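Example record

The entry below shows one chain as it appears in the dataset: sequence first, then structure tokens.
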Amino acid sequence: MTGITEMEEELCEAVFKDLGRTKNVTEITEILGLKAACKHDIDHVKSYSAEFTEHSELLLIPAKTIIRYEPLGVAAIYGSWNYPLMVVLKPLIQCITAGNCAILKPSEFAPETSKAVKNFVEKYLDNEAYAVIEGGVDVSVKLNAQKLDLICFTGSTFVGKIVAQAAAKNMIPCIMELGGKCPVIVDQDADIDFAAGKLAFAKFNNSGQTCVAPDYIFVHEKIIKQFVETMIVKLREMYGEKPTGSDQMGKMINEFHTKRVEELIQGAGGKIVAGGKVTKDIKYIEPTIILEPDLDSKLMEEEIFGPVLPLFPFT
């Protein structure tokens, strides 16, 4: 157990170097989920591999019909940079449970975590069955061209289409978790304190770099003023007001995405009611709330993937 604990420390430290997230947040958002996935699969592995007898058609009697689940073979797992442990290691757990081999390709945008994941796999797993390859797009293209048995990809819709097109040439099945827009409605009878607290964490944790984070919120006009005020209080409680930001919130992954989100803020229109400041040299963007941004702005058309929350009143 000591070795595993030390490896957890190494993994969390790597995530901190890449995303500026504390060990505590990484434990909650990634490590605990991985441990739960391990326990769940260990508890259910016998039922997963069990054979099931089905009724045979009259025409086939005296034949016996059995459903038997078998491993697919070799799976390629493409990790994402925003949750660089959970997204690459959870599918690996499921591959192991199902009896498959796997090739892991962590995101090159989180190089420290990629290195730590490679060290983890090489140290604790059978290296003839499980491998980690590192690198950029060229490595992904090479891997995707292989005759794999399954591709598990997490990332943008744009890249997902490219992966799926390449996989189709070899008839490789794909499991994909892609981007999208996630709206939230807060009605006038909602518990404002509860809703604001939940949404402040859900949106701004990991500096807003979460696939299923709320992208925009509709708030009933009767409570929108109180809701905004409560959100600001919750943000101060969670992340403070330091100009260098909070380790609990983390930073943007790189300069490109910092500039991208800054441009979304600048071109959004509407009224900034909280935050708005961007400190590019440390890749920090204040938790930002924009009231009634332009509906045809890029902020509303694209995935935000940053700590910016559009807010709209409704009647």
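Notes for this example: The domain at 183-314 is CATH 3.40.309.10 (Aldehyde Dehydrogenase; Chain A, domain 2). DSSP finds ten helices and 14 strands in the chain.
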